[in-house]
Design goal:
Length: 122
């Protein structure tokens, strides 16, 4: 069974920084891409940043230049470094593993973490 466990959320003042981490566990052969999504109250979940196994990154316009996504050498963990945080960044942040190949499974699958709360407020 695959699990994604996020950590690093919390309360921070505007202009501050947080680092979110996500670690995937289980019998994972490969993960094509790992993403961070956010979901603000009353809104749909939206993509914040993504990184492929080749290291290709993509960012939402709202976070370009402020957030950095990094994937570890073993390819089963991802970090989101968030700088210059704004109140509008307040949301639950979810880790997502896209096209995950798991032992004994015929097809690749997607997995979600449980989410971690980020609150930016003075």
């Amino acid at each position: 069974q695959v699990q994604l466990v996020e950590s690093g959320g919390g309360l921070v003042q505007p202009g501050g920084s947080l680092r979110l981490s996500c670690v995937a566990s289980g019998c994972i052969i490969s993960i094509y891409r790992m993403d961070w999504y956010l979901q603000a109250p009353g809104k749909q979940r939206e993509l914040v940043a993504s990184i492929t196994y080749q290291g290709r990154t993509n960012y939402a316009d709202s976070v370009k230049g402020r957030f950095t996504i990094i994937r570890d050498g073993a390819q089963k963990a991802v970090t989101l470094q968030m700088d210059s945080l704004k109140p509008e960044d307040t949301a639950i942040y979810y880790c997502h593993a896209y096209k995950t190949v798991v032992c004994g499974h015929e097809h690749d699958e997607d997995y979600w973490g449980q989410g971690t709360q980020v609150t930016v407020s003075s």
